[in-house]
């Protein structure tokens, strides 16, 4: 008897539902065109919004940091794993975000786990948008805090939960800044107003907003001019910033607390120095010029306008994340496969990540796509869209 047979059963189920996927193994660097075996494929599903993964300043920073500090940090942050480069990165992140302090974690995922998992107890309540990212959901699972979920961006439901939460020690409203499956933006001004009325803490996860929204990519609080009114901002260094890591931007008090209590910070080794140096270089690139962000947004407007005028359903998209709604899981994965045959990588996203009939390919436009790239994609999408009865 194989003791892991139940895993096989679950995998068989995924296969039956058309959701079993081997990993796609790319043969070149993360870029707009990537090699897949001997084919060149136009990448439309990477989070490399600003094209920074290959930026010469960042590569140089990484190489120099390796020469100076070696390849590993040697320990968790609280023992010997805080190098000067980590400290400088945090100072510049706080200055960039306009907050008192910033604290860097190994990833956006561990940032949410570290903060949510440590700051809340059974006297508290966390109120969360139903479409929040898995790392927020898992972070909440780590706490003994009470939970309430509101329907996606439903402010009435949020208010009902806030109204009913008066007896708790603290109330925390958690939302993604940009939602990763639909590319829509959280109604942050309204959330902040409600939170102020009911004395709640506002927690925004800006993973898809870092480097995308706000002046020079400062995120959704800056985008909506809510300075000082969002208590906890989480950013990622793994998407637009082009390397890997996550951070909290907020108060010095919260930072001090997390240094002592956040478990990924205490029990998992810190970012390698080359990664910290790369992130620092990226923040400097962002601050030195807004050219990349301008290209990101002009590409996005161009592409979304054309996709919509072809007749595709792009849902609620208002950012460079542009879903094309296809339908059932089977049809969605077939559409994605068809596009790959045509030379485009467009990740299929299906139930249970999204509703059963709302399977979609999720496209992400970047600053480095050229108009020719986008026109090529539009041409192929039109062809495949007609074949699949989407147009
Ligand atoms: C991608 C993402 C994360 C995880 O960030 P990593 O740095 O990749 O771990 C967290 N929250 C949201 C909303 C995300 O989209």
From TrEMBL:
<keyword id="KW-0093">Biotin biosynthesis</keyword>
<comment type="pathway">
    <text>Cofactor biosynthesis; biotin biosynthesis.</text>
</comment>
<keyword id="KW-0012">Acyltransferase</keyword>
<dbReference type="Pfam" id="PF00155">
    <property type="entry name" value="Aminotran_1_2"/>
</dbReference>
<dbReference type="InterPro" id="IPR015421">
    <property type="entry name" value="PyrdxlP-dep_Trfase_major"/>
</dbReference>
<dbReference type="InterPro" id="IPR001917">
    <property type="entry name" value="Aminotrans_II_pyridoxalP_BS"/>
</dbReference>
<comment type="similarity">
    <text>Belongs to the class-II pyridoxal-phosphate-dependent aminotransferase family. BioF subfamily.</text>
</comment>
<dbReference type="InterPro" id="IPR015422">
    <property type="entry name" value="PyrdxlP-dep_Trfase_small"/>
</dbReference>
<comment type="function">
    <text>Catalyzes the decarboxylative condensation of pimeloyl-[acyl-carrier protein] and L-alanine to produce 8-amino-7-oxononanoate (AON), [acyl-carrier protein], and carbon dioxide.</text>
</comment>
<dbReference type="InterPro" id="IPR050087">
    <property type="entry name" value="AON_synthase_class-II"/>
</dbReference>
<dbReference type="InterPro" id="IPR004839">
    <property type="entry name" value="Aminotransferase_I/II_large"/>
</dbReference>
<dbReference type="InterPro" id="IPR015424">
    <property type="entry name" value="PyrdxlP-dep_Trfase"/>
</dbReference>
<dbReference type="InterPro" id="IPR010962">
    <property type="entry name" value="AONS_Archaea/Firmicutes"/>
</dbReference>
<dbReference type="InterPro" id="IPR004723">
    <property type="entry name" value="AONS_Archaea/Proteobacteria"/>
</dbReference>
<dbReference type="GO" id="GO:0008890">
    <property type="term" value="F:glycine C-acetyltransferase activity"/>
</dbReference>
<protein>
    <recommendedName>
        <fullName>8-amino-7-ketopelargonate synthase</fullName>
        <ecNumber>2.3.1.47</ecNumber>
    </recommendedName>
</protein>
<feature type="domain" description="Aminotransferase class I/classII large">
    <location>
        <begin position="41"/>
        <end position="381"/>
    </location>
</feature>
<comment type="subunit">
    <text>Homodimer.</text>
</comment>
<keyword id="KW-0808">Transferase</keyword>
<keyword id="KW-0663">Pyridoxal phosphate</keyword>
